[in-house]
Amino acid sequence: MSFEQQSRREFLRTGALVAAGFSLLSNELFAGSNKPAVRNIGVQLWSVKEDMMKDAKGTLEKVAKMGYKQVEGFGYTDGKFFGVPTDEFGKILVGNGLKMPSAHGNITSKDYANGQLSDAFKKTVEDAKKVGQKYVIAPYMAYEDRSKGKFMAEMFNKAGEHCKGMGMKFGYHNHDFEFKEYDGVTMYKTLLDNTEKDLVTFEMDLYWVKFAKQNPIEWFKNYQGRFTHLHVKDHDPIKNVSVEVGEGDINFQEIFNSKLSGAKYFIVELENYKRPALEGIEISLNNLKKLKF
């Protein structure tokens, strides 16, 4: 066989392989266009708090085996998560293929004086970075702080500045009291109106919005792109308590169809239990995966 013949045969063989590869790639691309985007589905570990307190490592192993890839933490104190030192807790997450993009971290008006944040809050942010967090989210507002809406918004902006300097973002998680009026304006509106979008995000708890007889989609329309996180738990209309996703009356699909929220993270949470907590979060995960968003 001449060099020319061999070269031509090699060219045709290579060309065929390239064409076949391109065909497969094209099929994958077109097929991919019909697939839902990658979804950041996680679980707030408050849902399994008793299990976590008894055996954090073993519980995280079970959560990972269910199919969760992300968790949201809570209960950080004195350099520890669930009594486990920050560095060790981070290793447990990695060992189970889990990430913790966000965790709840307490902050009150006592953490802000003379334009300065407390060392305690700064330490919370510092340790959050160690475990790979992208967000530090305030989970609640103390009763005595609820009449200080604009002050709290100012503090949140300051917390947001600090988090931004650490490569993270600050956020706030609601309950139902934020939809009550303080000085003629709902707390939620005060916080949204007086915080900077690039510094402060919001984690909307869909159950508590329903509980407060509010429509999340209306808030999405009025404050587009402000809600990077959604807490997903359902509402029992008879008992008026939270239940597993898919076992209540919240139309999650309608909510997810709205693209105005800016939601990137969808986080399962349980606060009431009609079955073992671990079983409940698995049911919620499986039902959530059936939805399109």
How would you characterize the overall build of this protein?
This protein is an alpha/beta fold and 293 residues long. It folds into 2 domains: 1-35; 37-288, Divalent-metal-dependent TIM barrel enzymes (TIM Barrel, Alpha-Beta Barrel). Helix content is 43%, strand content 19%. It is built from 11 helices and 16 strands. An 8-stranded parallel β-barrel has the order 1-2-5-8-9-12-13-16. β10 and β11 form a beta hairpin. The longest helix is centred in the N-terminal third of the chain and has 31 residues, at 3-33. Residues 1-37 have low confidence and may be disordered.
Total count of strands: 16
| Structural class designation | alpha/beta
The fraction of residues assigned to DSSP E strands is: 15-25%
Radius of gyration: 23 Å
Mean pLDDT: 89
Question: Which regions contain 5 or more consecutive residues with pLDDT less than 50?
Answer: 1-37
Strand order of the largest sheet: 1-2-5-8-9-12-13-16
Order of helices and strands: HEHHEEEHEEEHEHEEEHEHHEEEHEH
